[in-house]
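Hi U.,

Before I forget, here's the chain from the pilot set. I'm dumping it here mostly so it's searchable later in email.
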Amino acid sequence: MKLTAELAAGGSHQVALARHARGGRVEIDGVVYEAALEGKPDGSLELTLDGRTHAAWVVTHGETAYVHAFGRAWTVTLRDPVRGTGTSASEADVCLAPMPGTVVELAVAVGDRVSTGQTMIVIESMKMQLNLEAARDGVVAELPFPKGAVFDRDAVLARLEARGD
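Structure:
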């Protein structure tokens, strides 16, 4: 399976996945890694790449994966080049909660101009902090949850309107 992994912070990588009897093979931008993945009772994953084992946590929402591994956190959108992006303008207008959690920080305020990839909200869920970023340039029209508020999965955490340049 071939995918394009787009990082919310910018950049993209070509990824190819292949399974075999002992696990799998991951190719990232032409570099091949032997890989194995095992789920743990605490919800974490044990990721082994080229014989080195790492703890990882991954939560997915549609084509977006929220990944915590190697001491860092990433928001990654996986695109199947055969299917296309599937993102409409209305989907880019809202930032939905990928899972239930708590608002840790509002990095922007209503009326602020934001750029694609800019952190708008920091949330905590499953003992992980995630930066939720603007999917496009725009102006923050709504932030329904204040700092400390608890929300459910798919709650609208931010809404953008077109930039009025």
